[in-house]
Amino acid sequence: MSFVVGVLGGIFAGLLGVGGGVILIPLMVELLKIEQIAAHGTSLVAIAFTGVAGTIAYEFHGSIDWTASLLLAATAIVTAYIGARFANELPEWKLKKSFGGFQILIAVLMLVNPYLHQFTTDAAGASVKIVVLLATGVFTGFLSGMMGVGGGAIMVPAMVLLLGFNQYTAQGSSLLAMIPGSSVGAFTHWRLGNVRTQLLPGLIAGVIVGTCLGGSIANMLPERELQLMFCALLVWSGIRYLRSRIHPA
Q1: Which of 5, 41, 141, 146 yields a CA-CA distance of 20 to 30 A from 88?
Q2: Exposed (0-12), middle (13-18) or buried (19+): which is 147, by Cβ within 10 Å?
Q3: Which residues fall within 8 angstroms of residue 105, CB to CB, at 6 or more apart?
Q4: Is the pTM of this model over 0.90?
Q5: CA neighbours closer than 13 Å in the CB half-sphere of residue 157
Q6: pLDDT tens digits along 67-111
């Protein structure tokens, strides 16, 4: 069953340039019957392999900006550790609801993006590009470690909306950037006892197969359709987070 869960999460990861955590976590909780925090930690281990498989698939099509990925990862590896530590200490439902609203906002921005003026990399300048990517890495890394996701839901819109990246390059660069951050978050969760190692062989094998398949399909689809699919995923995930039950201390 863990292999099936991995394949499903991997397909979404490769197709939409995200880590797959928004699919892996609810599937692990519902189908594999593990607790939420353990699903977050275990998800991050699988996401590291998702990033590797997805990077290979996107690089084959020349859809990765390596400089952008390195800048994103530079700050994400620091805040991923912090986010993973916070996951054990802060009320989880508060961050879920905030993040859910943010995801829906990003989905709306992506939908109206064709009608808005975009800053291109050249127009914004190299220094602005560096600042945007480093700042995005800070936010992404924390959410990755805290929520057990790869952070593509943050990185892809930031690259598309603020820096004028096309969807394919943003997704490929996102998958590469999430490898270091998710690895740090996964290691931190493992030290905290939040990784179910018995699930990893099937889960990792599944995400590798699914991500390669999704990444190959993604480059065969029109860019606008990919954006719409990405928005649908964000809305679905956002609503799920917003409906999280409140658990007063």
Answers
A1: 5
A2: buried
A3: none
A4: no
A5: 22
A6: 999 999 999 999 999 999 988 887 767 767 777 787 788 778 667
Across 22-48, b (16+ Cβ under 10 Å) vs e yields bbbbbbbeeebebebbbbbbbbbbbbb
Please tell me the total number of residues recorded for the chain in this structure. Answer: 249
* The residue type at 129: K
CA terminus-to-terminus distance, the chain:
35
Distance CA 130, CA 118 (A): 17
Question: From the centroid of its chain, how far is CA 249?
Answer: 29
The dihedral region occupied by 64, where left means phi > 0, alpha psi between -120 and 50, and beta the remainder, is beta
Q: What share of the chain is helix, strand, coil (3-state, %, to 5)?
A: 80, 0, 20
Tokens representing residue 197 in the block: 């190692």
For residue 130, give both structure tokens. Answer: 């560096």
Q: Are 179 and 145 in contact (CB under 8 A)?
A: no
Residues of the chain falling short of pLDDT 50: 117-121
